[in-house]
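U., I forgot to send this yesterday:
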Amino acid sequence: MHIIGGAFKGRKLIAPEGTATRPTNARARQAMFDILRHAPWAGQDFLNQARVLDVFAGTGACGLEALSRGAAHASFIENAQTALASLRANITACKMEQKTSVFAADALTPPPGTPHDLIFLDPPYGRDFIPKALAALGAQTWLAPGALIIAEYGPQDALVTGGIILAERQHGAAKLLFWRLTP
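Result:
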C-alpha cells in the first residue's frame, strides 16, 4: 500500500498484519480524490484549506493522502493498538508530525474535538457504525457546519446522512458515499 498522489506520491505505508484493519484500496482512494478534486462542490481549493478528520483511521491512508494533496491538517481517530502503531509510523515516514493529531479513542465515544471540514469514515463493515459515529462526533464538536463527509461502507450497512447526498460510487464490495452536512 502506498500514497497515490501529491507530494508523497509513491510513499509506502505500513499496515498491521492480519485482517484487523481493512485499508481503503488504492483504486478507491484514487477515485475518491479524483472526485474531490473535480467536483463543483469540492475542488482543489477546498482540499488545500481542509481540516481533515480520518475516523476509524487504521493506517491513516485517507488522511495522509489528503495531506499529500494539500490539506492543511489531519486528525486521526483510532483505538486498535496495532493500527495506532502503523498510523504513527506512517505519519513519521511522511514527516507530517506537525500537521497531524492522533487520538487513541473509540469513534463511538470520542473526546471533545474541534470542527473539521472533510471527514473520512471507514468503519468495519456490517456494524452500522456510520450513523453512530456521526452522532458521537457531532456531539463532541468534531463536525464543522456544512462538513463534507466521505464514507466507505459495506452492502449491509445502514446510512443516515443528515445532509445532501452529492455522489455515490461502487468499488468492489465497498461503496463510497459523498455528502454534505446541512448546517
